[in-house]
């Protein structure tokens, strides 16, 4: 909440400016939880999803085809870095936000570790001994 008023900067992860996922990255870093960088990766880092009706402060909420993320600050409100030309702010969850809602997660260190393991497996080189069959 103390980041309110800092300008939105695409790709920003510091007090010079934040984008939506950069703000969440730094907030959870302060809590000792390392999140992936982008909103899509942050959503994918946790298998347990939270429904709109079960949102609690600290939950990450995702909108618009995983193109935006905010954090529930209190019931019915979120803090986020909205878009270029705006600043980090708290806003009421509107009907429009409800319609754009994709899902939510409740970050925990275990979930992030599982996500990192999946990413490492994807990066492993493919064996040169593979043979294609028809």
UniProtKB/TrEMBL annotation:
Carries keyword Protease? yes
In this protein, which residues make up the domain named NlpC/P60?
1-108
One of its Pfam families is NLPC_P60
The answer on whether this UniProt entry bears the keyword Hydrolase reads yes
Molecular function per GO:
cysteine-type peptidase activity
- Which terms are listed as keywords in the entry? Hydrolase, Protease, Thiol protease
Output the superkingdom of the source species.
Bacteria
Give the matching InterPro entries.
NLP_P60_dom (IPR000064), Papain-like_cys_pep_sf (IPR038765), PG_Endopeptidase_C40 (IPR051794)
Which GO BP terms apply? proteolysis
| Family of the protein in this entry | Belongs to the peptidase C40 family.
Q: What is this protein called?
A: Cell wall-associated NlpC family hydrolase
């Amino acid at each position: 909440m103390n980041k309110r008023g800092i300008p939105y900067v695409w790709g920003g992860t510091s007090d010079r400016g934040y984008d939506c996922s950069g703000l969440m990255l730094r907030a959870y870093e302060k809590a000792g939880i390392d999140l992936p960088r982008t909103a899509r990766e942050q959503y994918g880092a946790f298998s347990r999803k939270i429904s709109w009706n079960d949102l609690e402060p600290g939950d990450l909420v995702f909108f618009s085809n995983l193109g935006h993320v905010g954090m529930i600050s209190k019931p019915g409100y979120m803090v986020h870095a909205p878009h270029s030309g705006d600043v980090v702010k708290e806003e009421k969850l509107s009907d429009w936000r409800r319609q754009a809602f994709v899902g939510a997660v409740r970050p925990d260190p275990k979930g992030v570790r599982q996500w990192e393991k999946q990413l490492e497996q994807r990066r492993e080189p493919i064996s040169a001994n593979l043979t294609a069959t028809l």
